[in-house]
Request: fold
Amino acid sequence: MKSFSKLTEGLQGQPMLEILTTVCAMEAEGKKVYRFEVGDSSFDAYPHVVEATKEALDNGHTKYVDSLGIPPLREAICDYTERKLGYRPDLSQVAIMPANSVIDFVMRCVVNPGEEVIFTDPGFASYIAVASYLGIKVVKVPIWEKNEFRLNPDDLLPLITDKTRLIIITSPANPTGGVMTEKEMLRLAEIVREKDIYLLSDEIYAENIYDCKHFSPSVIDQCRERTIILNGFSKAHAMSGWRLGYAIGPVDLIAKMGQMFETVYTCVPPFIQYAGISALSTPEEMVRERINQYKNLRDLMVEKLNEIPGVTCNVPKGAIYAFPNITGTGMSSKEFAKFVLEKAGVAVVPGSCFGDNGEGYVRICYARSEDIIEEACAAMKAALTNR
Reply:
């Protein structure tokens, strides 16, 4: 039997999608499952976005386009960035691609096999998966519930070596919902400038913020020197199936990422890009209304989780996840996830899937209906009470 390449030895995929596969099989057997495992929303995309997609198809926007993205969408992203962050990137700083591709291409472009990338533990599983298959050494900086799962930037200093090429930060964070303060973000930007290290700022949940403000470290160098912003449309606009995202970064890096994207994908379908233009034109009051709905769902989820024996949950300030502490049940994260799936029909993700420091927690996506949240939490409470 012929062997596969060395590259494939590090492939591990995403644990959330493995759970999704299991859940889909259960549903195919006729079992009822309350699904909180994937970071997707039960809300539909805005009607004007759907209509823009249809209109783009009707108008024949189905051919090859610039691999970096169509200029009208890139201009819309520059407008959005100026409106939200106070500076305007150049068009040559913007590349359109699925958000997960940004993680992959940034690592491939700035980190060699054997060199180091630093991110938080717990942190998004895709960072771990991409670094693993690329042969990049992962250095994890623990974050803690007692600090609202916020990174203390000075904790990075003893971890930075001459092999450190990239730091990744997510705020609001997946899986914890933690949100870094302006002071913390400015300190982080200062550290990467002093150490001359690239910084990937994952801001996919920047609109999903409830009790505070979003701060981007990019305001220091305006993505012209070492900061790269990752953003997209899946979370704020409920457009997960469109697979539309973007990067803003230094011109030379964006050009390299564009070449790489061109090699692998050619381009994002233009009719999908026109949907992105429509999404960015969504009236602010519509966005705020939906975010308020998410906030109410968050509050309900946290309230109901805290009624379950052995479970405690702090209030996350952003993203679309609760990250309850389940150590009081006496079970590990994987044991708990297995138990509530089998006994209560509730699908959650073990916190250990996001790093060793996620042990003792589970991730629950609360972007669901109130009825689903109440029924699922009642089922978990009954199962844990009667075990």
